[in-house]
Amino acid sequence: MWHGRDISTSTIPPLTPLLFTLLLLFFPPSCIVLVTFGTVKPSGELTKEDVSAMFEQFHIQLGKNGDCVFKVRLEQSLLPENFSEKIQVTDQPLPQQKLLTLQNTKLFISHCGQHSLTEVCFI
């Protein structure tokens, strides 16, 4: 499930790959930042403190460029309590190849694992 500010709500429906793609096609943000740290362990070795520091930097960047949307794959237990709705978090696999092919994807933050590198090299 995708979460914005209130991660405790269970009324947000799961975002299927098809719905995700349609939203990107019809309502594209001018800037996308893709953040993913692995297929097997979605958050890599990150701690809650690491994620809080990372989200603080995302908020700083949102202050400079409010048009960006951060697509983040992380374990829900690591999320800070309050964060911008422009930081969209899921614990489900992201359509990484699709996101990487979009012209408005400006930055890809990864742990540089085999799957991520393969997708970057062979698109």
UniProtKB/TrEMBL annotation:
Keywords: Membrane, Transmembrane, Transmembrane helix. The chain crosses the membrane at residues 20-40. This is Uncharacterized protein. Gene3D superfamilies: Glycogen Phosphorylase B.
